[in-house]
Amino acid sequence: MQKFPMTAPGLQRLEEELKTLKSIERPAVIRAIAEARTHGDLSENAEYHAARERQSFIEGRIAELEEIVSSAEVIDPSSLSGDQVKFGAHVKLVDEETDKEATYQIVGVHEADIKAARLSISSPLAKALIGKKVGDTISVPAPGGDRSYEILSVQYR
């Protein structure tokens, strides 16, 4: 079985989503299906088909989350140290073209959220950062051409 590296908060978010799907969403869609069945002919019942489709999505997501949660390998970034970029690191970068600074945490594939500055370990930027140190410059392929970044700091918290 493949193990997925993950931070503890990332695992907790997935477990909360799983709990919500099982305890709230699943019973709600079962009620919606039962309600739609009372409306008669199922072959032309749009509510019934929509509820069944929603049920299919929920059951699929539950199965996916159970697989991920059972295969999670929790890594505590606060137990790591050093100036080299590793999983869990908070990395502060500066875009060498625009001088714009950004800080990202390198996290597991299933907990990545670019809006929350959590960068997937499998993303091109994270792959370029792994193993590098403060002061290093990296080049990352982007749709508009390669982008260069300088690593300003690496923290484990």
UniProtKB/TrEMBL annotation:
Transcription elongation factor GreA/GreB C-terminal domain span:
82-156
Q: Does the keyword Cytoplasm apply?
A: no
The entry assigns this protein to a family as follows: Belongs to the GreA/GreB family.
UniProt KW keywords:
DNA-binding, Elongation factor, Protein biosynthesis, Transcription, Transcription regulation
Q: Which GO MF terms are attached to this record?
A: DNA binding; RNA polymerase binding; translation elongation factor activity
Instruction: Report the domain of life of the source organism.
Output: Bacteria
Coiled-coil residue spans? none
Q: Which PANTHER family match?
A: TRANSCRIPTION ELONGATION FACTOR GREA
Listed under GO biological process in this entry are: DNA-templated transcription elongation; regulation of DNA-templated transcription elongation
* Domain Transcription elongation factor GreA/GreB N-terminal: from-to ranges: 5-74
Q: Which InterPro entries match?
A: GreA/GreB_C_sf (IPR036953), TF_GreA/GreB_CS (IPR018151), Tscrpt_elong_fac_GreA (IPR006359), Tscrpt_elong_fac_GreA/B (IPR028624), Tscrpt_elong_fac_GreA/B_C (IPR001437), Tscrpt_elong_fac_GreA/B_fam (IPR023459), Tscrpt_elong_fac_GreA/B_N (IPR022691), Tscrpt_elong_fac_GreA/B_N_sf (IPR036805)
This molecule's function is given as: Necessary for efficient RNA polymerase transcription elongation past template-encoded arresting sites. The arresting sites in DNA have the property of trapping a certain fraction of elongating RNA polymerases that pass through, resulting in locked ternary complexes. Cleavage of the nascent transcript by cleavage factors such as GreA or GreB allows the resumption of elongation from the new 3'terminus. GreA releases sequences of 2 to 3 nucleotides.
Name of this chain's protein: Transcription elongation factor GreA
